Amino acid sequence: MTAALVVVGLATALQHGRIASASGVTSPAVASPRAAAASSAPAASARPRRTPATPRPTPVASAADLEALALRLRPPITGLAPGAIGDTFAETRGGHPHEATDIVAPRGTPVVAVDDGVIARLFTSVPGGLTVYELSADGAWTYYYAHLDRYPEGLHEGALVRAGDVLGYVGTTGNAGTTAHLHFAIMKRDTESSWWEGTAVDPYPLLRGARAGGH
Ligand SMILES: [Zn+2]
After folding, report:
1. Residue 182 CA, ligand 1 centroid: distance in Å
2. Which of 6, 27, 46, 127 is at 20 to 30 A from 183, Cα to Cα?
């Protein structure tokens, strides 16, 4: 009976991606794209709803965290026109919180990394279309770029990128509608977070203060 319960508990934990190896890195079985796609594929909000049965403390971004981030981020699109960034974090899209910022730009406009990091996943989803998940070099943040028209040649998972490197091109893939735009989200993560997980923070005030030229 006890053993059965343990097995059930383990299966549940695995299902929800909560088993981490001793090093604190999520095990490959849990992080496999197949499993992720089947159980909790990222929505356009990049934040699939967690079932109520698996509460876990969510990573919290402190004011100091956000201040430091605002100082080092560069805009995901170079030479943004004033007003191109939508203050749309709190809006509801299709019954879900948007928790991202939409940046309108012509199709094909290069989308660049806002920060140094590593490509955690190149993922195609119904709502997000062609997407990039970039993990910041310090491991504290995930940057999510969605509705891309295409990726640049040679971009691959595991690639190290510098702020300003091209990650894709603005498009309308997924549920973007007819207006080409970049859907951009930032998630605060912790060592237990999988590539799609984290606590969404509003990119809008961060990007408004972002340096225009990068590093
Ligand atoms: Zn959006």
Report:
1. 7
2. 27
